[in-house]
Amino acid sequence: MRAAFLDRDGTVIDDMHYGSSPELVRPLPGAGEALWMLREAGFGVFVVTNQSGAARGFLSRERLHEINREMERRLGFRFTAIEFCPHRPGEQCPCRKPLVGMVSRILRRWPNIDLARSITVGDKPSDVLLGKNLGTRTALLGQDDPRGSEPDLVAPDLLEVARWAIGG
User: CA-CA distance, 155 to 105, in Å (whole number)?
Assistant: First the structure.
């Protein structure tokens, strides 16, 4: 099985900057269509997201789950799974991107994922580095300067990434 490991804020929805309210969820243009394209092409579609706002006290884990449910509702799409790292940078957490802990949890539940045929997508170099650590193809959204992360693709949005992933 191929998988698409997607960052959440700035990739699927507007960056919420520690937003703690489901009402702030705004899907990015083309994101819903891209998600369905990936699913129909046989990808498992996963969200892997650093959410240090939980450790910083900006939102509870339950509120984070509410935000994720609202994201799915507004997109009209149910993700294969959503994993998050609630820790702050510097806490030496093995699940915080670019480390592979969140995806390791996914691989325990879906051991048939072929990482070499999968993609990792996000709007920050840490998302690209996660993909490199996993051995997936990588895409960086919205940046002309990938700041040394060397993604396989720099794209303006998730829809362009979906077209690239399906074609390759």
Answer: 28
Measured distance CA(53)–CA(154) in Å, rounded: 27
Q: What number of other Cβ atoms are within 10 A of residue 47's Cβ?
A: 22
Shortest CA distance to 78 belongs to which of 20, 139, 12? 12
Q: How confident is the model at residue 144 (pLDDT cuts 50, 70, 90)?
A: low
Vertex 109 angle, CA 103 and 115, to 5°: 45
Domains contained in the chain, number: 1
Question: Which among 72, 88, 89, 92 has a CA at the least distance from the CA of 80?
Answer: 72
Structure tokens at 55: 């450790």
* Token pair for 1: 């099985």
Q: What is the CATH number of the domain that holds 20?
A: 3.40.50.1000
Bond prior to 98 in cis (omega within 30° of 0): yes
Stated pTM of the model: 0.94
Which residues does the annotation mark as catalytic?
7, 9
Which residues form the domain of 82?
2-167
Amino acid, single-letter form, for residue 5: F
Asked if residue 144 lies in contact with residue 154, where contact means CB atoms within 8 angstroms, the answer is yes
